[in-house]
Write a structure and sequence with these properties.
Layout: H1 2-6, H2 15-40, H3 44-60, H4 72-91, H5 101-130, H6 136-165, H7 177-195, H8 200-223, H9 242-268, H10 270-275, H11 277-303, E1 312-316, E2 323-324, E3 329-335, H12 340-349, E4 361-363, E5 366-367, H13 373-382, H14 392-401, H15 403-414, E6 417-422, E7 439-443, E8 447-449, H16 451-466, H17 469-472, E9 486-488, H18 496-502, E10 506-507, E11 513-520, H19 530-550, E12 558-562, E13 577-580, E14 590-592, E15 596-597, H20 601-608, H21 616-620, E16 634-639, E17 662-669, H22 672-681, E18 686-689
Parallel strand pairs: 2-10, 3-11, 3-12, 4-14, 5-15, 6-11
Antiparallel strand pairs: 1-7, 4-13, 8-9, 12-13, 16-17, 17-18
Length: 695
């Protein structure tokens, strides 16, 4: 507290010195504002004219002296804000003054002067018109309330999110915790000082607001997010959740009002006032909530693997992602969540955009197997005969060691194929090392992390959890939990935009054939419309195939364009399947209504690549070329949702009360309309319990 009191001191100087220094400060401010406007705004003449008029008014009225109303603490805060502006502008420049070192220095100085002086002016105005001596009695209460709120927002929610998902994350706890710890403490000290250095009535109102907001935030992320289908942000129809939002707002109003009501009761009753109930409440709530959260964090840190502090994983190298063979090529695009209905709607609207697929056959009756990427893609690539019944990781080991996977990749390698798989469908690809040829070991030194962007992603994810339902629609959390801000030295491209920009196909200079799988973001972005995402996928295919043609390798390539699953949580969520055999050409897309499934992938690849052998049907099933259109074939689809009340299921051992990892399977014959009917009228045919799965 002595340090805080020392920071209350104000500069002691003559009026002449104040005038000179004040003029210099404001000249720097207006020069920076003018430069910023010149580079950032279109109508430069009008903007700079307004700045000159404003500067003249400030100097003529001697308002430049307002900065000398500030205490040492206010000056420290202003300098900190200026330095933060330089830090953030280095990552997200709002204006460009040039790329050379001198221009960068000018830009940094401009940012520092603009924001430090602007904050000094604002703080000076607050001090002049609302200022009072520091209320030492309220400082402790305000500090603990603000610290608890900031601890929840900046430390607990990002940390809890990290601990719950660290297996799939490509950064470690030390990449963000020290930063958030430092700003939590700094903001609490500075914020409490500002609040307690203004008039007593305003201080009381703000302090009550902090406690009310703390109660709201804690209740929201602990109890009020149940209306959301998933944390990561599946697209939500907010207009269909008006009742949930209304209830949520009512809870916030009650909780936020409680400290004010308690203060009012204290003022009305001398007996309550003597008991100091209001003060005790404002100390107890932050202390209790922070203690509970701190215990939870320590417990999670101690019970989780040491990998929350270190990064050692097997990943997929992107070194050959845009390389194709001068010999034989099998190329597979798996567009995440590419649903038939969106591609068919896009075709009806703009069929010309599908020219890239005119040589393909579209299989209109394709079924997915799992409504989950990290089950669907590994199952598809290994010709899995087993369903996941424990953790995905244990299932991976089982299906990789099984005969279909071993035989499929052994046959590819024996026939001189280099197996290059790219995508984001597992956390650690070490189990796939003997199957895929581009698995490599990644350590912490192989990663470049864009810290500012990572902090923004974490802040956005935290906001999505603590904001009321009515405001969540304005927040777009990262589906990758910040992984896109981590760049590996040989990392692969997965996002649509990154992949599209990076396409630059080259022929390899040896005699190896290539088996290439490109699993990319597809329609799984959350922040855009399915229509735009579909068009982005078509742009990718167009550019990739055009470059294949330029290299003379399009005609003789075997190509599949499919998806891992359809749109999450929908009854008719079926994936696309387009296929072009070597040498096939056509004037327009052809159609086939055979009842196929993505589980036919391995058998189809071997058949079309000329690598089939006797007995393959027992291992891989039949290729789609052997499934006639009139065959009535039973298929199995696992959904995330049961769609109807299913009665009392014997959940055997599953510990998650929400059964978030349950696989609800439906057998059906016919089209997806038959599946929809079955899902709407009947309980699942199979219920399998897993220990969680991804998107």
């Amino acid at each position: 507290m002595d340090v805080i009191l020392m920071m209350q001191k104000r500069p002691d100087m003559s009026n002449k010195a104040k005038t000179i220094i004040g003029c210099i400060i404001y000249l720097l401010f207006f020069a920076s504002l003018g430069l910023f406007s010149f580079f950032a705004l279109d109508n430069k003449v009008v903007t700079i004219s307004l700045i000159i008029v404003l500067a003249a008014l400030i100097f003529l009225s001697k308002k430049y002296l307002i900065v000398f109303e500030n205490s040492l603490m206010y000056y420290a805060i202003s300098i900190y804000i200026g330095l933060k502006a330089v830090y953030w502008f280095s990552a997200f420049p709002l204006v460009s003054v040039g790329s050379d070192a001198f221009s960068k220095v000018i830009g940094d100085l401009m940012a520092f002067c603009l924001f430090s002086v602007a904050s000094a002016i604002v703080l000076g105005a607050i001090n002049k018109y609302l200022g009072a001596d520091l209320d030492q009695k309220r400082y402790k209460t305000t500090f603990w309330g603000l610290l608890s709120l900031l601890f929840t927002v900046y430390i607990f929610i990002p940390s809890e999110t990290f601990f719950s998902n660290y297996i799939q994350l490509q950064y470690v706890y030390a990449d963000f915790f020290p930063f958030y710890l430092s700003i939590t403490v700094l903001y609490a000290v500075a914020g409490a000082y500002i609040i307690c250095s203004i008039k007593k009535k305003a201080t009381a109102i703000i302090s009550n607001g902090i406690i009310g907001l703390l109660l709201c935030v804690y209740t929201q992320y602990m109890f009020m997010n149940k209306a959301l289908p998933t944390f990561a942000g599946e697209r939500i129809e907010w207009n269909e959740r008006i009742t949930d939002q209304a209830v949520n707002i009512a809870v916030w109003v009650v909780l936020f009002s409680f400290p004010f009501i308690l203060d009012l009761a204290v003022r009305k009753s001398e007996r309550i006032k003597k008991m100091r109930i209001s003060e005790k409440f404002k100390m107890f709530v932050p202390g209790f909530l922070t203690s509970v959260q701190l215990i939870a964090l320590v417990t999670m840190a101690m019970t989780n693997s040491s990998s929350i502090f270190t990064y050692e994983m097997e990943q997929l190298s992107g070194e050959k992602q845009f390389t194709v063979s001068s010999q034989k090529n099998t190329i597979v695009f798996i567009l995440d969540m590419a649903d038939q209905k969106y591609f068919e709607a896009a075709y009806q609207q703009k069929p010309e955009n599908f020219n890239c697929l005119k040589d393909f056959t579209y299989y209109t009756n394709t079924a997915m197997l799992y409504d989950s990427t990290n089950l669907s893609v590994p199952g598809m690539l290994t010709a899995s005969r087993y369903y996941p019944e424990t953790t995905p990781e244990a299932w991976y080991e089982k299906i990789v060691a099984d005969e279909p996977a071993q035989e499929f990749y052994s046959r590819l390698h024996k026939n001189n194929y280099d197996v290059q798989i790219f995508g984001d469908f597992m956390n650690d690809y070490g189990v796939m090392r003997e199957l895929f040829d581009n698995v490599y070991h990644v350590s912490r030194s192989d990663l470049q992390i864009y810290k500012q962007e990572l902090y923004i992603d974490l802040d956005t994810m935290a906001a999505y959890r603590y904001l009321p339902l009515c405001l969540k629609r304005f927040v777009s959390p990262s589906a990758a939990f910040g992984n896109e801000e981590v760049v590996m030295k040989m990392g692969r491209k997965h996002g649509n935009h990154d992949f599209l920009e990076a396409i630059d196909l080259k022929l390899r200079d040896d005699n190896k054939n290539m088996f290439i799988v490109q699993h990319i973001e597809g329609l799984h972005r959350y922040t855009d419309t399915p229509e735009n995402e579909t068009q982005e996928c078509l742009d990718i295919l167009t550019k990739y195939f055009d470059q294949l043609k330029e290299l003379g390798k399009y005609d003789d390539s075997f190509i599949i364009v499919t998806a891992d699953h359809g749109w999450h949580y929908e009854r008719d969520n079926m994936p696309i399947w387009y296929m072009k055999r070597p040498g096939e050409t056509a004037e327009c897309i052809r159609y086939c209504s055979s009842q196929i499934t993505i589980a036919d992938f391995a058998a189809t690849c071997l058949d079309e690549m000329g690598l089939s052998e006797d007995g393959d049907e027992d291992l891989f099933g039949r290729p789609i070329s052997q499934i006639p259109e009139d065959e009535q074939r039973e298929r199995l689809v696992f959904q995330r949702d049961d769609f109807v009340y299913v009665g009392n299921i014997d959940w055997k051992r599953y510990s998650d009360k929400d059964h978030a990892g349950a696989l609800l399977g439906y057998y059906y014959i016919g089209t997806k309309e038959d599946l929809v009917r079955h899902e709407a009228e009947d309980p699942p045919d199979i219920v399998i319990e897993t220990d969680g799965y991804g998107g």
